[in-house]
Amino acid sequence: MVIIGGTSFVVAGVTPDHLTFCNSPNDTAKNTDFIQKSAPEKLNKKSKFYGTFEPVIKKDMIISGSTSELLISALQGGKTYPHRFVLTHPFNSPHIIALVEVIGGKKTAPWIVDTATNFYNSIDKKAIKTIQRSSRSPCQSFTSSNLARGNLSRCRGCC
Questions:
Q1: Is 70 exceeded by the pLDDT of residue 86?
Q2: Which of 90, 93, 118, 129 is least enclosed by beta carbons within 10 angstroms?
């Protein structure tokens, strides 16, 4: 079972003997292929957290962050391996709507986006890929947020 954002999933082939318990984020990161971290929506806190384990991770590990407002380019800034970073943005409510937006930046390696997309699809989510090509993009590549804003604006005044 894998727990993501409070929702648990049974992943084929994963049993309790596949689990390893570690005493620190660095110990965990050393032996991990994919990190999904959901930290407060503060750039300095997310950057500090990622900076603590970046020196010890494997060179092909994927670092995924959940955000609804920060840009991937901001999270990649100042990192030793910016090509490993990808954002994941679940549609709300994630236990009802299985969509996850996987967002790569200009510095993200294409295989990182593909691998993250495949991971979320493997746990019964429906992942869509978007690329944040510019920090000046008006939509900032958060497709789900823009769709929700559009629907909410249409609903105003309806009731």
A1: yes
A2: 93
